[in-house]
Write a structure and sequence with these properties.
Helices cover 26% and strands 30% of the residues. It has 712 residues and is of the alpha+beta class. It folds into 2 domains: 255 residues, PPM-type phosphatase domain (Phosphatase 2c, domain 1, 4-Layer Sandwich), CATH 3.60.40; 286 residues, Neuraminidase (6 Propeller), CATH 2.120.10. The strands form 9 sheets. The protein has a 6-stranded antiparallel sheet with strand order 2-1-11-10-7-8, covered by helices on one side. The protein has a 5-stranded antiparallel sheet with strand order 3-4-5-6-9, with helices on one face. A 5-stranded mixed sheet has the order 12-35-34-33-32. Strand 34 and strand 35 form a beta hairpin. The longest helix is centred in the middle third of the chain and has 47 residues. It is globular and about 80 Å long. The C terminus is likely disordered.
Length: 712
C-alpha cells in the first residue's frame, strides 16, 4: 500500500520569550522502519513529550521517551489505538514504578498522532493540546480550550493506569495539525485560526511566535500528497531546514529560522523571507559580476602595457597560436578566481550569521535568573549547540572559543563537573571499543566493531603510551576446541577459569560459546557451549564466587549458571522468580559487589539493586542538580576495599559520574577536550594509581582521578 500523504513539519521552541533555533526535546516524527510489525508498514507516528510536575528532567530524558514511543509502537501489533494504548501503558508503568521507589519523581505529558492512509489518529495523556485545521475549520483537541478541567489530565507516572484521550480524523491535501503544550490554550482562538490559515507553515510559526508571551513547545504538521514541492524557505547550507523526500518528508523550521527573533511580522508590501533570501543571492551575484568586470578591466589594462599594438606593417603578436590559447584561458581563469572569491564571501556570511545566533543565545542565557537552575542549564546548553555549528564552519574562532569557556564555566559550576587533562594510552585501528577489564598492569578491551579482544599493556606511570596485542582465540570466526566464535558481546575476568582452573580472561558470544584464555600464554585457550534455550538478547556478563551471571533485558531476566568444576553444563537458573519480578527491560549493564548484591543500570539513568532476587534500597542522591545523569550507557563497580565507588558513563553528555555504593554523588568528570569523549563507552579504575581508564571509539584514554589524600 503506498503512502497517501507526506508530512511537512515545523517546530516552535520559545523559552523566556525568546525563540530557540533547535528542535524541541521530545519532538519526534518517524516513518515505519523496515522491520515494523505487520500492519504498521505504512504508518507515520508523530510524538511530543512534555515536562510535567515539579521536577524537570534534562532534554535527553524526553528525547529517549519519544524514541521509545516510536520503537514500541512499530513493534506492537493490532489496531492503531491498541498500539498507542500499549505505548502509553509501557511508559506509564516505568515512570509509576520509579516514582513509587524513588524520592525523585518524574512525570510527563505526551501527545501522539499516527497517520495511516488518510486516517489520522490523535491521542494524549496529561496536559498537551492539539489543533486540527481541516477544510477551513479549526478543531481543538481534546476539548474546547476554554474548558480547563478537560484540558488538564493526570500525566504519565501519577496513576497505575494512564488516562488516555483519543480521536480519529480524516486528512486531505493541506490539512494542518498542531501539537503543543498547554500554553497554546492561552492564545485567543481567533488568532490561532488566523495563523493556521496563512500560506506557508513558516509564516504560521512566525505568527504563532508573536502570540506567545513566555514559552511554548510546539510542532506543526502539514499533510501533502507525495512529492509535492515544499513551500518552506530553505536556509542555505543548513541541513536542519532542508526538505528530505521519503515516505514522510520533514522540513523542521523553527521560529528563529523563519524570522529574526525580535522581528515584527512581515508588513504588507514587504518581501517574504524566501524572497528576501533570493534578493540576497541576486545582490551577491551582481557583486560577483561587478567584480568580474573590474577584474577583466584590469586584465585589459595589463595586456595593453605588456603587449602593445604592433607598429604599422608588423605582424601582431596576438596572431600567434600562443596568443590564441591565452585568449581562451585568461577569461576562464578570471571567472574561476571570481567565483572562488564569491563563494568564500558566502561562507563568511554564513559564519557571521551563525556567530550572531550564538551571541543572541548567550544574551538570553545571561539574562536567566541565577536562581533558575533549569533555565540556566537550558540557555547555556543552547549556546554550545550554536558554537558547535559555528566551529563546523570556521574552527578555532576566538570569539566562539570565548563563548565555549563562558558556557562551560557556568555549566561546570552548576553540575560540579571536574575537567581533567586526558592522556592517549593507545589507538587500535578501525576499532570500536565497548568494554574494558583491568587486571594488574594489563587492560583487556573488547572491540565490538570487529568482535576481537585485545590485551593492552599499560605504562608503569599509568598515563604514557602503551601497546596492544590481539588474543587469537577471542575473535569472530576464530576456532577454540572446535567451537567457532561468533559475535562477542562481553568480556570478564574470573579467578576460577577453565584452562588451569585459575585466573583467566573470558569472552562470551551470542550463540553461548564461552572462551577463556590464560593471561600468561594468550594462545592457551579453552571453550565450552552454554545452554542458551532461554536466552533472548543478552548484553553483559559477570562472575561472582565461580557463578556466571548473564544480563538479558529482552527476556527481563538475569540468568545464573552454577559451575561444575570449571564448566557450566547445566540449564541456567532464573535470578528473578515469583510474581513480583521487576521490569529491567531498559537495562544496559550490571555489576556485582563482594557481598553479592547486583546493581542494574537502566538506560534512563536509574539504578536498582537486588540480593538473591530481592530488592534492596538504592537511591541516586546528592547530585548537584535534578538534571544530572538522566541517561546512561555502562557502569563499572570497583570492588577494591579502599575505593568502593561506582562509575556511570553517559555518552550523550560525555560525562562520567562517580557515586558511592549507596548511590551518593561523589564527582562527575569530563575531558578538557570533550571531543575525546564523543564515543565514550566504558571506564575502569586503577585504585592504587588513582587513574581512570576510558574506552572511547578506537582509543584507550586515561586521566588521574585526584591526588592521594584528597576526597576524590
Amino acid at each position: 500500500m503506498p503512502f497517501e500523504y507526506e508530512a511537512l513539519v515545523g517546530h516552535l521552541y520559545v523559552v523566556g520569550g525568546r525563540a530557540i533555533s533547535a528542535t524541541p526535546p521530545g519532538a519526534l516524527v518517524e516513518v515505519a522502519p523496515r522491520k515494523a510489525a505487520r500492519g504498521r508498514e505504512t504508518d507515520t507516528i508523530f510524538a511530543l513529550v512534555l515536562p510535567s510536575g515539579d521536577m524537570v528532567a534534562p532534554a535527553a530524558f524526553y528525547e529517549q521517551m519519544a524514541a521509545l514511543t516510536a520503537e514500541r509502537y512499530f513493534n506492537s501489533t493490532g489496531s492503531v489505538t491498541a498500539g498507542l494504548r500499549a505505548v502509553y501503558g509501557h511508559i506509564n508503568d516505568n515512570l509509576f514504578d520509579h516514582n513509587a521507589r524513588s524520592q525523585q519523581r518524574y512525570e510527563a505529558s505526551m501527545l501522539c498522532a499516527v497517520l495511516r492512509g488518510s486516517d489520522l489518529y490523535l491521542s494524549r495523556v496529561g496536559a498537551g493540546v492539539a489543533l486540527l485545521r481541516h477544510e477551513g475549520e479549526t478543531q481543538p483537541f481534546p476539548a474546547d480550550f476554554s474548558n480547563d478541567e478537560a484540558l488538564f489530565g493526570p500525566p504519565l507516572g501519577v496513576h497505575p493506569s494512564p488516562d488516555v484521550k483519543m480521536a480519529m480524523y480524516q486528512v486531505t491535501n493541506g490539512t494542518r495539525l498542531v501539537l503543543a503544550d498547554a500554553s497554546l490554550a492561552d492564545v485567543e482562538m481567533n488568532a490561532l485560526t488566523a495563523a493556521l490559515a496563512l500560506g506557508d507553515i513558516s509564516d504560521v510559526l512566525v505568527a504563532l511566535k508573536d502570540q506567545i508571551r513566555s514559552q511554548i513547545t510546539l510542532t506543526i504538521i502539514e499533510f501533502v500528497p507525495p512529492e509535492q514541492p515544499a513551500p518552506l524557505p530553505v536556509r542555505e547550507a543548513e541541513s536542519t531546514a532542508a526538505v528530505t523526500t521519503s515516505e514522510a518528508r520533514t522540513a523542521p523550521v523553527s521560529a528563529a529560522e523563519a524570522a529574526p527573533v525580535d522581528s515584527a511580522p512581515r508588513e504588507p508590501g514587504k518581501p517574504r523571507l524566501s524572497e528576501a533570501r533570493s534578493a540576497n543571492v541576486k545582490r551577491a551575484v551582481s557583486g560577483a559580476a561587478v567584480g568580474a568586470g573590474k577584474a577583466l578591466e584590469g586584465v585589459n589594462t595589463t595586456l595593453d602595457k605588456v603587449m602593445p599594438l604592433p607598429k604599422e606593417g608588423q605582424r601582431s603578436w596576438l596572431s600567434t597560436p600562443l596568443a590564441a590559447g591565452l585568449v581562451v584561458f585568461i577569461p576562464v581563469l578570471v571567472v574561476i578566481v571570481v567565483v572562488v572569491m564569491w563563494l568564500s564571501r558566502t561562507g563568511e556570511s554564513e559564519f557571521d550569521q551563525c556567530v550572531s545566533s550564538a551571541n543572541e543565545a548567550a544574551q538570553v542565557a545571561r539574562g536567566v535568573a541565577s536562581s533558575d537552575v533549569t533555565g540556566t542549564l537550558a540557555g547555556w546548553n543552547a549556546v554550545l549547540v550554536f558554537v558547535d555549528e559555528c566551529n563546523a564552519i570556521n574552527p578555532n574562532d576566538p570569539n566562539m572559543n570565548a563563548l565555549t569557556r563562558e558556557a562551560r564555566t557556568v555549566l561546570d559550576a552548576l553540575l560540579q563537573v571536574s575537567r581533567r587533562p586526558t592522556a592517549l594510552i593507545d589507538i587500535l585501528p578501525s576499532a570500536s571499543l565497548r568494554r574494558g577489564v583491568l587486571q594488574g598492569e594489563d587492560l583487556y578491551v573488547l572491540d565490538d566493531g570487529n568482535d576481537l579482544v585485545y590485551r593492552v599493556t599499560l605504562p608503569t606511570d599509568g598515563t604514557s603510551s602503551g601497546s596492544h596485542v590481539p588474543i587469537p582465540g577471542m575473535r569472530r570466526q576464530g576456532t577454540v576446541n572446535q567451537f567457532t566464535i561468533g559475535d562477542i558481546f562481553d568480556i570478564a575476568w574470573t579467578d576460577q577459569g577453565g584452562v588451569s582452573q585459575g585466573s583467566v580472561i573470558t569472552a562470551l558470544d551470542h550463540s553461548g560459546v564461552l572462551v577463556d584464555c590464560s593471561p600468561t600464554f594468550l594462545q592457551n585457550c579453552s571453550a565450552q557451549q552454554l545452554n542458551t534455550d532461554t536466552w533472548n538478547t543478552p548484553v553483559s556478563m559477570q562472575f561472582w564466587q565461580g557463578r556466571l551471571y548473564v544480563l538479558d533485558p529482552a527476556a527481563n531476566q538475569i540468568w545464573r549458571y552454577d559451575p561444575s568444576g570449571s564448566a557450566y553444563p547445566n540449564v541456567p537458573i532464573e535470578y528473578f522468580v515469583g510474581e513480583g519480578r521487576p521490569d529491567i527491560r531498559l537495562a544496559v549493564d550490571f555489576a556485582i559487589d563482594t557481598p553479592g548484591s547486583i546493581y542494574i543500570l537502566l538506560s534512563n539513568g536509574l539504578v536498582v539493586r537486588y540480593n538473591g532476587g530481592i530488592a534492596e534500597p538504592f537511591t541516586l542522591d546528592a547530585f548537584p542538580t535534578e538534571d544530572a545523569m538522566r541517561s546512561a550507557d555502562s557502569m563499572f563497580l570497583n570492588t577494591n576495599p579502599i575505593a568502593q565507588n561506582i562509575y556511570f558513563v553517559d555518552r550523550s553528555t560525555r560525562t562520567i559520574y562517580a557515586t558511592t555504593y549507596r548511590g551518593t554523588f561523589v564527582n562527575s568528570y569530563r575531558a578538557e577536550d570533550e571531543s575525546m569523549f564523543t564515543e565514550i563507552a566504558h571506564v575502569v579504575e586503577d585504585s592504587n594509581k588513582r587513574i581512570v581508564y576510558v574506552m572511547s571509539g578506537n582509543s584507550v584514554l586515561a586521566f588521574r582521578r585526584g591526588a592521594a589524600g584528597t576526597t576524590e
